[in-house]
Amino acid sequence: MREQISVLEALQQIDMELNELETHLKEYPDKISALEDEIRSSKEILENLISQKDEFIKVRSGFENEISQNQENIKKSEEKLFEIKTHKEYQALQKEITETKRLNAELEDKLLVEMEKIENLEAEINQKTEQLEKKESENREKIDEYQLELDEVKVAYEPKKHEKEEKIQALDPEILPIYEKIMKKNGEVLAVAKNEMCTGCYMNIPAQMFNEILTLTRIIQCPNCQKILYCKEESNSEAKTA
Ligand SMILES: [Zn+2]
């Protein structure tokens, strides 16, 4: 039975390692995709700013075209002034020129506002581009690290599963369901019995049961936490000398 306890100890250790590997198998891909999402959303923000800038540039071009068209009209009208014969016509055209000039002044104010918006946006785009480059290279580095670790975990997983199968082969078939039930419930199967106490849950063990654990003629579970109880070799020899 002591041999079976050693098998259980080894099996428990393997299961804990398998658990850890399984956690990593799930955790690393999650971490990698979170880092990729971060890069993606930074890129989206930058792309939005760039398309916003394109819109502002279109508006600016519209104002610029309108202004130069108006300037041309003013020039033509001013040339026409010399050919006009009547005072009334002259006044009407003069009024038109003044009106167009006033309109152009307004448009130039609007143009300035647009140019300032573009300038600010360009500064923001430059800053965000720099940030993105930094974030991207940082994240890529982390992604590579996680990928490497993930590959290692994948390599380790199958042999560990195989190792578990081997241990199960060495285990008394009647003990396996007990082991699996306790493992599922507690994540830990064995508990050392010491000074008539279960060190898994710190409950006292009846004296007769404790003696049985010392001799280990059968599998004994803690009446409280259900873990399989055993004594360490040293307490065993103490018991022998006692
Ligand atoms: Zn217990």
Q: What global shape is seen?
A: rod-shaped
How large, in whole angstroms, is the Cα Rg?
Answer: 42 Å
Q: Which ligands does the model contain, each kind named once? A: zinc ion
The CATH topology of the largest domain corresponds to Helix Hairpins
Strand order, largest beta sheet: 2-1-3
Whole-number total of structural domains: 2
User: Architecture of the largest domain, according to CATH?
Assistant: Orthogonal Bundle
Give average pLDDT, whole number: 94
CATH class of the largest domain: Mainly Alpha
Helix content: over 70%
Percentage of residues in DSSP E strands: under 5%
- Spans where pLDDT lies below 50 across 5 or more residues: 235-242
- Strand element count: 3
Please tally the helical runs, counting DSSP H or I stretches of 4 or more residues: 5
Alpha-carbon distance between the two ends: 22 Å
Order of helices and strands: HHHEEHEH
Q: The biggest beta sheet, please? A: 3 strands, mixed
